[in-house]
Amino acid sequence: MNALAARRRHPAAIALLILLGLVVTGVAYSTFAPKQADAATASASQVEEGKKLFLSNCSTCHGMQAQGSKAGPSLAGVGAASVDFQMGTGRMPLAAPGVQAPRVDEVRFSEEEIAAVAAYIASLAPGPAVPDAEYSSGEGGDVAKGAELFRVNCAMCHNFAGSGGALTRGKYAPALRDIEGKHIYEAMVTGPQSMPVFSDTNISPESKNDIVAYLHSVDKQENVGGMNLGNLGPVSEGLFVWVFGLGLMVAFAVWLGKKAA
């Protein structure tokens, strides 16, 4: 009986089973894995134009080959998304050294120039790409789900309403009010400053779009209760009550005392 079983079990059977398992696993992963939210790839002419812009505007701090220096970090592997975020929000080029690069409303470069520099940096090493509008506009996103994800992953630094907050060593989590959805998405996948990186395995592109939808809904939200005091929470509200509310009560008590006298 044992000899018959030994004849039926081919020596390559285990290897074939392992190979079959690997094929099934690969097919399942490619089918069900989160889809990348990358935009279209760049052309060679765009990369060359981006290189010229980089050498004339960015190489002083980041090096001629984007290898980094004492004045700026290496840009190899940061991806087009990081360049689009930093330049698209006016943080780069940095006006002066500081603890943190602030957002600037006046962007120095056009969208075409930013896209060219992003294409050049992306050609140096793989990195997060600029997201497609399908995943970064907030359109069709689940606001309720986005609110839950934001409270779990972001609110401890950015405040429940995206009003920002203080961090250590003079740094801060910036306010997220009236921010373009693309830049919110890019911040999640690149992790600028002290922010952690939320890859697609942590938060899927669809869930990132839900977060964008929530933040955009906060921008449009009406304050039916009156002044929101910046949506900074109980600290600002308590301060307002103590300074103005208690002050009015003291003034009213003084006025009553003088009237009685």
UniProtKB/TrEMBL annotation:
Keywords: Cell membrane, Electron transport, Heme, Iron, Membrane, Metal-binding, Repeat, Respiratory chain, Translocase, Transmembrane, Transmembrane helix, Transport. PROSITE patterns: CYTC (PS51007). It holds the Pfam family Cytochrome_CBB3. It is found in: Cell membrane. The keyword Ribosomal protein does not apply. It comes from the Bacteria. Its EC number is 7.1.1.8. The chain crosses the membrane at residues 239-257. It catalyses: a quinol + 2 Fe(III)-[cytochrome c](out) = a quinone + 2 Fe(II)-[cytochrome c](out) + 2 H(+)(out). Residues 45-125, 141-219 form the Cytochrome c domain. The keyword Thylakoid does not apply. Its main location: membrane. It is a multi-pass membrane protein. The cytochrome bc1 complex is composed of a cytochrome b (QcrB), the Rieske iron-sulfur protein (QcrA) and a diheme cytochrome c (QcrC) subunit. This is Cytochrome bc1 complex cytochrome c subunit. It comes from Pedococcus aerophilus. The lineage of its organism: Bacteria, Bacillati, Actinomycetota, Actinomycetes, Micrococcales.
